[in-house]
Design brief:
369 residues; alpha/beta; Dihydrodipicolinate Reductase, domain 2; 2 domains; 5-stranded parallel β-sheet; 12 helices
């Protein structure tokens, strides 16, 4: 694997590296870790990458690796949003597989261009919608598909953080700086950073698509040009209704991710605070707590032993996505749970429609791709 972005000071770069290498299937051997060539080399050293394979640019990496018998076979993109399209297109054109941070691109038009590139290349492409890697989120999807809760009527999904409740960008935070800059984040702020995760989680578990949105986005912290708080009403194609909450100004929240799916005979509830549990509520008031089976729990515990405590569940979910991607690359899997370019298109359509609908007070707005 070659890593694009994710250099010194990055939070998500090390997460990609640990998750990719956790099962011993993938090795990080090259990268262009920073737009600053010296920082790229320093970052490569911190990852244990040969300095000769820490490149100054994406083009340099692709050219350098193409001439090696042990050259990279896939790239992971961990840059700000505005760089996703160019990096992905260059890697795909070089015949490499791509796994990318979400959202897929900075704009819907870019996502459409990316979709064409993926189709033209024929190479595997996946997005790092991390929460789809959690075993009990996948179990929730299976339960809905099996009819365990009947016909879905209502969906409530939330992703809230509080780290931008103050102007961190004014305090020099690099992670905050690009997220609130429309030149780097794109048309959406919180709705793109957190809202796309929540949106994808709702569609992934229900197996249904959102048909219409009614959005209320706001910039709560003075001076911000992009939204940092969002509430979106949803209408699904099967008639179900939904509520999506995404916030970066939820004071005191680290990462609150919750999903509730209500059907006509039962309901499912999943919470990131207890990621190994899924609550199945029945019409008669009974509640069943579903947990990972003993074999999976033992495997999870073994894999988690060497991981940083608070990040262990997230990295394990990420690792499952990388494992699925590795299976596809070697022909051992069909990528059932992987979220590809179609999910990226829907995510960007959700962002763009929500931003414009809120800005112009359109009310219910069709969400189509």
């Amino acid at each position: 694997m070659g890593l694009i972005g994710g250099g010194v000071g990055s939070l998500i770069g090390p997460v990609h590296r640990i998750a990719a290498e956790l099962d011993g299937r993938i090795a990080l051997v090259a990268g262009t870790f920073s737009s600053d060539p010296q920082r790229s080399v320093q970052s490569g050293e911190s990852y244990g990458v040969d300095p000769a394979r820490a490149y100054a640019s994406v083009d340099d990496m692709l050219a350098g690796e193409a001439g090696r018998p042990d050259g990279i076979e896939l790239v992971a993109i961990a840059t700000p949003n505005h760089l996703h399209l160019s990096a992905a297109q260059a890697a795909l054109a070089a015949g490499l597989a791509v796994i990318s941070e979400k959202p897929a691109t900075a704009t819907l038009a870019e996502a459409e261009a990316l979709s064409r590139s993926v189709q033209w290349s024929g190479r595997p492409y996946a997005l790092a919608y991390t929460y789809t890697g959690f075993p009990m989120v996948r179990e929730a999807r299976r339960q809905v598909a099996a009819g365990a809760i009947g016909r879905v009527r209502k969906v409530v999904v939330e992703f809230s953080q509080g780290w931008l409740a103050v102007a961190m960008e004014a305090l020099g935070s690099k992670q905050a700086g690009w997220r609130v800059d429309p030149e780097k984040s794109g048309i959406g702020g919180c709705i793109a950073d957190l809202g796309t995760h929540a949106f994808n989680l709702a569609e992934f578990v229900t197996g249904d698509q959102v048909a219409e949105v009614m959005a209320d986005l706001g910039s709560v912290v003075d001076g911000r040009r992009l939204d940092d708080d969002a509430a979106v009403l949803l209408r699904f194609s099967n008639g179900a209704r939904g509520v999506l909450i995404a916030s970066q100004i939820a004071t005191g929240e680290a990462s609150s991710v919750q999903l509730k799916v209500y059907g006509d005979v039962g309901a499912l509830s999943w919470d990131l605070k207890t990621p190994d549990q899924l609550l199945l509520s029945r019409l008669d008031g009974g509640i069943e707590v579903l947990v990972e089976d003993a074999v999976k729990l033992a495997r999870t515990a073994q894999r988690a032993a060497a991981l940083p405590g608070a990040f262990a569940p997230l990295i394990l979910a990420f690792a499952d996505i990388y494992r699925d991607f590795a299976d596809v690359l070697v022909g051992d899997g069909d990528g059932t749970y992987l979220q590809g370019v179609d999910a990226g298109l829907r995510g960007m359509a959700f962002v763009e429609r929500s931003v414009l609908a809120s800005r112009e007070q359109h009310g219910w707005t069709e969400l189509s791709v």
